[in-house]
Amino acid sequence: MKSLISIFVVFAFLMFPAVVPAAETGTVAETIDSGGYVYIRLEDGVWIAANTFAVSKGDNIQYNGAMEMNDFHSKSLDKTFKSILFVSEAGLVGDDSAVKTPAKLPGNANKGARPAAVQTPAPGEIKPLAEGKTIADIFIEADQLKEKMVSLNAKVIKINKHIMGRNWITLQDGSGPNPETRLVATSQAVVSPGDIVTVKGTVKTDVDLGYGYHYDVMLEEATFSPGLE
Questions:
Q1: Spatial contact of 197 and 225, defined as CB atoms under 8 Å apart
Q2: Phi, psi values for residue 20, rounded to 5°
Q3: Domains identified in the chain, total number
């Protein structure tokens, strides 16, 4: 099943799902256990997902720290939820042992069929884009580049597909004093780990997705084209 990134995360921007701050209660109409989660349909039609706990039809539950995800597809259930709330706490009403561990945001869409790890590019392996930036440049100049469009050459290290309506693509180019530095880009594009690409996207800074997921710098609405190896 799609699990949430280290994650992802509920986003600070208007296009992102909203965090629901207040505690809620409801009566259980249906439950499904799968992949370490319990999926619960409440009598009002709302679906929630929490770390597994003992719950049955007819129980009254309480939950909070909800994060809405739209069009979420669970591979283990082979079911798409038009709307579902991933919650950080859930339990029976009046039960002080409510589950406190946050339900993880969906992450690797290909769990169970993981590709071999992609090797980090060595310093100098990825030729910088003429009139573009390197990942090191983007981190160093983040304040000046915020909300601006940048282009760079990089290697695709990982892609997590179809999370919150986008693909989450991890990039490296071997630049800077720490060539292990990674830059995450969100995009509708589909690329493959190991691809050398030219990336163009908008710089976002201090992105707090909640649940401990935070990006100092990332790219939004990125586009990809083949780069030169």
A1: yes
A2: -95, 110
A3: 2
- The residue count for the chain: 229
Quick check: 101 pLDDT over 60?
Answer: no
Label the pairing between strands 47-51 and 66-74.
unpaired
Q: Which two tokens stand for residue 16?
A: 């992102």
Domain that holds residue 77: 1-111
Antiparallel, parallel or unpaired: β 183-187 and 213-226: parallel
The pLDDT tens digits of the residues spanning 118-173 come to 888 999 999 999 999 999 999 999 999 999 999 999 999 988 877 767 888 999 99
**Per the structure block, which two tokens stand in for 216?**
């100092």
Please state the pTM of the whole predicted model.
Answer: 0.53
Domain shared by 82 and 4, yes or no:
yes
Q: Which residues pair with 167 in a beta bridge?
A: 187
Residue 81 to residue 70: CA distance in whole angstroms:
7
96 with 168, same domain: the answer is: no
